[in-house]
Automatic annotation (TrEMBL):
This is Acylphosphatase-like domain-containing protein. Residues 4-98 form the Acylphosphatase-like domain. It holds the Pfam family Acylphosphatase. It comes from the Eukaryota. Belongs to the acylphosphatase family.
Amino acid sequence: MVKRVYFLAHGGMVQGWLIYHAARLLYFTRARAAEHKLTGWVRNTYNNKVEGEAQGAEDALSKFLKEVDKGPRGSQVVKLDKEDRDVVEGEEGFEIRR
């Protein structure tokens, strides 16, 4: 079953650098999405959080969200909000939006 989820990752400090954490989590998220063959997008928010939408097989999506919730090594995700969304037909790839 294909599913789509909106996510918002609230990060903590990484060696005193909140912005560094957001940028690192952005690229980490894209890499994990590619690994799990998900489609969608991710971007930094104005307040240094990371948000996006991911779509794919339910089991792959679940693994992806667990990895995003954990975050990359050396950083910290304090909270991960999730909300189901409508599936986008014909979507290809997982992109970083600005």
